[in-house]
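Notebook B, p. 112. Complex prediction, attempt 2.
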Amino acid sequence: MTTLVRHLMWTAIAAAALLAVTYALPPFRNYQLATAAAYLCATAGLTVLVGLSGQLSLGHGAVMAVGAYAVALSQNRLADAGLTGNGVLVLSLALGVLAALVGGLIVGLAAARLRGPYLAGVTLAVAVALPAVTTVWAGVFHSDQGLSVYLDPPPAGLGYDFPLERWQSWLALAGALLVMLLLANLLRSRFGRSLRAVRDDEAAARLAGIDVARTQVLAFVVSAGCAGLGGGLLAVLTQSVSPGAYSLTLSLFLLMAVVVGGLGRLAGAVWGALLLVVLPDLTHTIVASLTLSPAAAQRLEGNLPLAVFGLTLIVVMIAAPGGVQGVVRRLLP
Amino acid sequence: MDRFLFLTVDGLAKGAVYAAFALAVVLIWRAARIVNFAQGAMAVATVYAAYSVTQATGSYWLGFAAALASGLVLGAGIERVVMRFVPHTSPLNSVIVALGLVLLLQAVLGALYGNEFRPVETPFSRTGITVGGVALLSRYDLFVLGAVLLLVVLLALLFTRTSTGLRMRSAAFAPEVSRLLGVNVAGLLTFGWALAAAVGALAGMLVVPTELGLHPNTMDMVFVSSFTAAVVGGLDSPIGAVVGGLAVGLVLSYAAGYLGSDVTPIATLALLLAVLLIRPGGLFAGVRTRAV
């Protein structure tokens, strides 16, 4: 059985299982599942970049924003022009990915010349500059306020009372499955082997005839495209986009997710994406169970996920660099 | 012309702070080959410590001392408790751990003090002194410039005139050889982190009143500007950090003055990219770090 057929089979099985899950879950949980799927697009892309090409990006939240803003602008323009429907949404998402690909290419071209902390610094500057971009071109991006995103109701064929959340989770899950399928194949290909070779020993890779710079730029572009789709889907889910939603903290959260999930394995990205959704929910439940004054509870609720994420990042990096997926693989030989 | 003069002077005053902060970045880079991305968050923590002390005692200067002291303790603590145990398999590891520290520190500060901006007092007036009809430096700007100048002189003396400084340089350049010669490399590393954090605390104390106020994320942008300053000067060079800081201060001041204050983060990014693409080792690098 070829790799492609095997991956297609796994995707089909996953799709069927997830479809059943979306029917079993109540709307709010479906929405959370959709959010995790949108994050998965970004964390999967980031896993390829950080884990397999060894390039660190602190600006993937900003790349998600590029996709999100592109989707928002195109959805709204097309709706203004009288074009609606779910074909239009696919077109908008494709434009979001395209915009992110272009952004990724620009940063990637610079990144291929930079190393470790330098690249991290540049991508950090990208993440910090994002709100300024939306303010300077306020006519297009509406500053801090952001844009609302037009979204059609679920197709009429699905029935009159089909829940919006289930439809959203279908959209996001379809995107996430597509990303996982493409990346899984990509990593098994010649390109995937080149990536690992470049990460492990640049000089040896060059001697083996691999174009190091090209491989690194390509890794950046691929991972940016995935993040763009994730951002676009997130915009579709929340039906809005603003710089606050794609802050430096989001970039750090994405990085935390891929590190904790397990760098270098796509399965790790799944753990990471789930963690991004489950952890804030969990801390909310914990804070709600404590008896605190409303002000203290609010303070704690905003900051507890941050503290947990930060602490997890430090502990995992020092104690279990393989992440969750590393532990899982050790337990299930 | 008046405007240009004002922006230049203002840029130098801002640049002095970036220079101090860039020095903190360079100190740790030289000692441990780590760019400490948690530098900003660590500095904010010390400024909050100063804020609490000043609130309790009513004295700015006690708060100032508290910031420096808490910087020393925080820097040493982070090196001893966290950084020492980071595996050296990849240079990314320490960056990632530092980012974890950023999240953790900001969260703890946010939980303790709340996520609103708190105004911070200054010991001197921030109104500009008028010279020949042009409002130039304020008393506070002069204080900032003086403090940074003093810092640079003290650091230069430490590294060139004391045996501790000499040992720090040898430990950073050739840790194995230094260890064989009886230099306490681990201890000096801790000292390096403590010193850098105290320098960061000083920079934080100087810059926070000129920003929107005290907030767990106040230093994010300052860190990016200072990182740019350190890169402009070359991460290895303290003199480069000072020159780079002043250069970044001037560029940002002109950009804000002529194009609008919203532009500064974009200007920082553009400057950082330009320097890295044209001269990746920085302007003061002795050795070319890498050829593509």
